[in-house]
From TrEMBL:
The keyword Ribonucleoprotein is annotated on this UniProt entry: no
Binding positions (substrate): H85, D121, G194, N195, S196
GO molecular function, one term: serine-type endopeptidase activity
Entry protein name: Probable periplasmic serine endoprotease DegP-like
Length: 474
């Protein structure tokens, strides 16, 4: 293998590059009017301002709020790119009264909000003056490599134009937040509150990322910052400027990564593919024949991995496109063709997978011994009883539902750690229905004989959709 000889040392200085780029980087502030409910939690409790905003008799009143962030000018006629959360209202009852963009020479401009996209956390503003603005261009984030030098310019803590430098620590980093755009450039350049919406530049002076978030146990920079790749941001920004609708692909499934425990229960490698927890009735996945319990390994010819999630692949597929979906179902591999639907709004998505509040304690008796309860208790940390029509009515499920009701959970077990509790209904184990303790016992013993480390239960909780839970056996 040929030896790679690095260039000697870091760049001698970032000063020339900064001098060229900084005039196009701006500070953004908003002034908002937020309605608050009198008598509720006071954000100023315990301070000299406590009670200042409470209306008489607990009536709603309003208070002024501000937000600070960063952005950059992307065209000579004054289009400005930033994060949506920099200019978003605080709460459902907030209204934006003014957005101000301040350039490096201290000039303030009233900004017009051109468009926002909450799902990608992007927004575009417009400012005006008689002469052209200095601006910067989007680069190609696909060419970014781990170890490349970058600089970030922004408005941390409201201090004004601040430059930090570092390298790209990771590309296409998934933070675990889920969603269609959980795919970032990671950097060790100092990113702090107020840097949101500011640009990440490569050494050619191109914007390859938009600083968006940090990981921090302290609230300050610990060297783990995240930027939206230009590859993701630029097409969305162009559509916002053009006033075009932003359509994303959608299958209508609720998914989770294949964790180590889940992989152990299925006997497959972990960190490959994503597990379908539930399917929206009448959605694209349901129409194609996808089911809860399927493991999606490949979509449209692309492997599903932590760096290339199913949500990302589908969201970036044009609605109406027919795509092959490779899955593993009960140990068998198969391919299903699905027609991609249009992704709903975030509010509609929450309604699709809404979980009503639990209605409280159950009222059923102690478990019956129709199987080896001691084995189940020892292996899974559960005490279960068959689901009768009477118990089904008490738990609010159909009387013909088949399963086992959890009567007790060992606090030291993996079941307790996964959140299982008294009143949950076990519908299946390793995809097989369980109507008796002996059936569950047989499935668990078989898994142990196959050297499995976990068993996969499908569990129903009062008022909530059934989910799959992998339980590590003892």
């Amino acid at each position: 293998m040929a030896r790679v000889v690095p260039r000697s040392g870091a760049p001698a200085s970032f000063a020339d590059l900064t001098e060229q780029l900084q005039p196009a980087v701006v500070n953004i502030s908003t002034r908002q009017r937020v309605q608050v409910q009198g008598g509720g939690q006071n954000p100023f409790a315990g301070t000299p301002f406590e009670g200042l905003f409470s209306g008489p008799g607990g009536q709603p009143t309003t208070r002024e709020a501000q937000s600070l962030g960063s952005g950059f000018i992307m065209s000579s006629d004054g289009y400005v790119v930033t994060n949506n959360h920099v200019v978003a209202t605080q709460g459902r009852n907030g209204t934006i009264e003014a957005i101000t963009v301040t350039t490096t020479d201290g000039t303030e401009y009233d900004a017009e909000l051109v468009g926002t996209d909450a799902q990608s956390d992007l927004a575009v503003l417009k400012i005006k003056r008689d002469k052209p603005f200095p601006f910067v261009n989007f680069g190609d984030s696909r060419q970014a490599r781990v170890g490349d030098w970058i600089i970030a310019i922004g408005n941390p803590f409201g201090l004004g134009g601040t430059v930090t430098s570092g390298i790209i620590s990771a590309v296409y980093r998934a933070t675990g937040g889920g969603g269609a755009y959980d795919r970032y450039l990671q950097t060790d350049a100092a990113i702090n509150r107020g840097n949101s919406g500011g640009p990440m530049f490569d050494m050619g002076g191109n914007v390859i990322g938009i600083n968006n978030a940090i990981f921090s146990p302290t609230g300050g920079s610990v060297g783990i910052g995240f930027a939206i790749p230009a590859e993701t941001a630029e097409p969305i920004v162009r559509k916002l400027i053009a006033g075009e609708a932003i359509e994303r692909g959608y299958l209508g499934i609720q998914i989770q990564p294949v964790s180590e425990d889940l992989a152990a229960s299925l006997g497959i490698p972990h960190n490959r593919g994503e597990f379908i927890q539930s399917v929206v009735p009448g959605g694209a996945a349901a129409k194609a024949g996808l089911r809860a319990g399927d493991v999606v390994t490949k979509v449209a010819g692309k492997d599903v991995t932590p760096e290339q999630t199913l949500s990302y692949i589908v969201a970036n597929t044009k609605p109406g496109t027919r795509i092959p979906v490779e899955i593993m179902r009960e140990g068998k591999r198969m391919t299903i063709t699905a027609t991609v639907d249009t992704r709903p709004s975030e509010d509609e998505l929450q309604q699709n997978f809404a979980n009503p509040d639990d209605n409280g304690e159950d009222g059923y008796a102690n478990p019956r011994t129709d199987g080896d309860q001691s084995f189940i208790a020892e292996t899974l940390g559960l005490s279960v009883t068959p689901l009768t029509a009477q118990i089904a009515r008490q738990l609010g499920v159909s009387e013909d539902t088949k399963g086992l009701v959890i009567a007790a959970v060992d606090n030291s077990s993996d079941a307790a750690g996964k959140g299982l509790r008294r009143g949950d209904i076990v519908l299946t184990a390793n995809y097989q229905e369980v109507g008796s303790v002996s059936e569950l016992e047989g499935i668990v013993r078989s898994a142990k004989n196959d050297k499995r480390e976990a068993v996969l239960l499908r569990v129903q909780r009062r008022g909530q959709p059934a989910i799959y839970v992998p339980l590590r056996m003892r």
